[in-house]
Design goal:
Layout (H helix, E strand, L loop, with lengths): L8 H14 L27 H16 L4 H8 L2 E2 L7 E2 L4 H13 L3 E11 L2 E11 L1 H13 L1 H7 L7
Antiparallel strand pairs: 1-2, 3-4
Length: about 160
């Protein structure tokens, strides 16, 4: 059986974005037409389906990296900030975009929070989380999309046929 590890990201993510666009839980918010995807960007995205592409990419990263948080994903999607004559510094992506996409994936049942422990505080008991991981339905969706992309991947990359 083909898994999402076997298919290159440049083929898997657009196919997965098409599947996510069909879901009613994954929808582009109204504010997303005007927002930049990071502090290092100058303009908003120009693609019409950038939200579903970002959600598909986030789902793939969550599946590959295990329990992962918003800050770690923001560092992954960030670029470098131009500081003029000073050296460039790392810039992080928009945490609001990532958090909203993760919440939509969680509502769709593709991603879940991983609880680590429960602590006592002055407000009562609170749950601590180590991040989000992919659920079994999310794993199934990723593998189905990877299996549908298998023939195109074999044509483009002949060496993949042995895997």
């Amino acid at each position: 059986m083909t898994t999402y590890y076997d298919i290159p990201a440049d083929m898997l993510i657009p196919a997965l974005a098409d599947k996510l666009a069909e879901m009613s839980e994954i929808s582009q918010p109204d504010w997303s037409d005007y927002v930049k995807t990071g502090a290092d960007r100058e303009r908003p995205p120009t693609q019409s389906n950038w939200w579903s592409i970002r959600a598909a990419s986030i789902l793939r990263k969550v599946a590959r990296q295990g329990p992962v948080g918003v800050t770690s994903l923001a560092q992954d999607y960030g670029g470098s900030v131009n500081n003029g004559s000073s050296p460039n510094t790392p810039g992080v992506a928009s945490r609001h975009v990532i958090r909203t996409a993760l919440q939509q994936l969680e509502t769709a049942g593709l991603v879940e929070l991983v609880a680590t422990k429960e602590i006592e505080s002055s407000e009562g008991k609170q749950q601590l989380f180590s991040g989000r991981r992919v659920t079994s339905s999310g794993q199934k969706l990723l593998d189905e999309v990877a299996h549908s992309c298998r023939d195109a991947a074999n044509e483009m990359y002949p060496g993949l046929a042995k895997y």
